[in-house]
């Protein structure tokens, strides 16, 4: 498993979003990855999901970050 936050964030995205975010400048990807990491750390609901399925928690956090950015 990669330790690079951008790679981990991209891996958590669904394929459609992964391609779109992967085409963005690296600085934007890093900002989104940082927001994703903050979401994972801050949300207690994701902690519970992480215990059951870490990939599902990462995917949900990634979805939330993209939803906030789009909104």
UniProtKB/TrEMBL annotation:
Sequence segments annotated as region (Disordered): 47-71
Domain of life, source organism: Bacteria
Biased composition range(s): Basic and acidic residues: 60-71
Protein name, as recorded: Uncharacterized protein
Organism: Streptomyces argyrophylli
Lineage of producing organism: Bacteria, Bacillati, Actinomycetota, Actinomycetes, Kitasatosporales
